[in-house]
Specification:
Number of domains: 1
Radius of gyration: 18 Å
Largest sheet: 6 strands, antiparallel, barrel
Structural class: alpha+beta
Shape: globular
Number of strands: 7
CATH topology: Pnp Oxidase, Chain A
Strand order of the largest sheet: 2-3-4-7-6-5
Distance between the termini: 31 Å
């Protein structure tokens, strides 16, 4: 519900080119996979490479699930100066990069693990669908009663 002083927020659906620009503007997102018939979400750092998204992974649940089913990669952002938020999603198949050309090419990508441990599996998400939206966040949604930004966005 909007007050008399606020305009309703409108949502703009983004064309694929704009979605890719937003994917390129970030280096951290969330990978959605299916694990034993239920959804799981993993934070990953990534790079955009030739119309695909590449991330690194250690062996385990995330890698196994990504390679077994379709995946979704989501990235979003918010500009507090303009009150504009955006969200982009790529859905498609994930493939381990194993060919000699892929392995050599992946070594040149600016993609470094954020966590310690070996993450020698390079995975490429080849999207079948890329969607996105941009919208203005009303002031009333950015700050609830009694909540300052430092309390609202603190991660513990």
């Amino acid at each position: 519900m909007t007050t008399a002083n606020e305009m309703p927020s409108s949502t703009t659906q983004l064309p694929a080119d704009d979605c890719w620009k937003l994917f390129r503007s970030a280096d951290f997102g969330r990978l959605g996979v299916i694990v034993e018939s239920h959804p799981e979400i993993f934070p990953v750092n990534y790079v955009v490479d030739h119309g695909s998204i590449v991330f690194r992974s250690a062996p385990g649940t995330k890698l196994d699930a990504a390679l077994a089913n379709e995946v979704a990669m989501e990235v979003d952002g918010f500009n507090p100066d303009t009150s504009v938020a955006w969200s982009v999603v790529a859905r498609g198949s994930a493939q381990r990069m194993t060919s000699i050309d892929d392995v050599l090419e992946s070594a040149m990508l600016p993609l470094f693990p954020w966590q310690s441990g070996e993450k020698n599996n390079f995975v490429r998400i080849v999207p079948s669908v890329v969607t996105g939206r941009r919208f203005v966040v009303p002031a009333s949604a950015r700050r609830g009663p009694g909540l300052s930004d430092s309390h609202r966005f603190r991660i513990e």
